[in-house]
Amino acid sequence: MTKSELWFTELQNENLTIGLRINKILHSEQTEYQTMDVVETEQYGTLLVLDGCVMTTDKDEFVYHEMMAHVALHTHPNPKSVLIVGGGDGGVIREAIKHPSVERAVLAEIDGRVVEVSKQYFPNIASGLSDPRVDVQITDGIKYVENHPGEFDVIFIDSTDPIGPAVGLFAKQFYESVSRALKDDGLFVAQTESPFINQDLIQKVQGDVRDLFPITELYLAYVPTYPTGMWSFTMGSKKYHPLRDQQPIRVTDTKYYTEQVHKAAFALPRFVEELIQK
Ligand code: AG3
Description:
Blueprint: E1 6-13, E2 16-30, E3 35-41, E4 45-50, E5 53-57, H1 61-73, E6 81-86, H2 91-96, E7 104-109, H3 112-121, E8 134-138, H4 141-146, E9 152-158, H5 172-181, E10 182-191, H6 199-212, E11 215-222, E12 230-237, H7 259-264, H8 270-275
Parallel strand pairs: 6-7, 6-9, 7-8, 9-10
Antiparallel strand pairs: 1-2, 2-3, 3-4, 4-5, 10-12, 11-12
Helix pairs in contact: 5-6
This protein binds 1-{4-[(3-aminopropyl)amino]butyl}guanidine.
């Protein structure tokens, strides 16, 4: 069979693109907040695109979702109440509820269409959204966090890039409310882009989080469809340290996360160490 000559291209920055051959366009719409497209790609399966940026694909989503959820949930000794800001596809929630200690997982997603379309086209990623422990709130995550002081053990900030609807999710003021929304021994993880092309952002977030949390760490994972493939996560924690307090493995139905990968993720290449030097 001849292959289609339709290609998806994300302009990752002004000098860099990623291209994926498309078999089929499944869905396109303009929501209240952003453009949203779902296409079937030859290489990575079904792809979710928001405002032209790759959010996730069926074939590599496990890296990001597991590494966002399980590092933090194997740092806190007994996480019961968790919040995901953004993450409307449900991937982080699906991983979070694999932890038997988690009694309540709130998703605060601003764009209800992302949740609906993910349920339709990404049933595997969205599978956790119907779990009885999950509470889906279609609301502004910034306001949700402000209005829920002292409630959460772990908060995940699963945002888009720091443009458009997500700008406020990278502001110091937001990390301050995240700190207030956490319990006294709480911690958070935010996705913080690529050390190859988003140095300024990573440095800014490190500085802000260090001002607010006694423990601030950066770790890495490899997501082939994100800009440069090398992806960073920033953790801010009030009490528990991801290496000193690493918990015995609790979840083993993973494809990327293991006890060793948890440790290895904090071993940073020299240029990344230098980037975040105190
Ligand atoms: N969160 C967004 C990652 C940012 C990707 N950036 C890009 N492609 N320019 C992903 C949401 C998955 N739950």
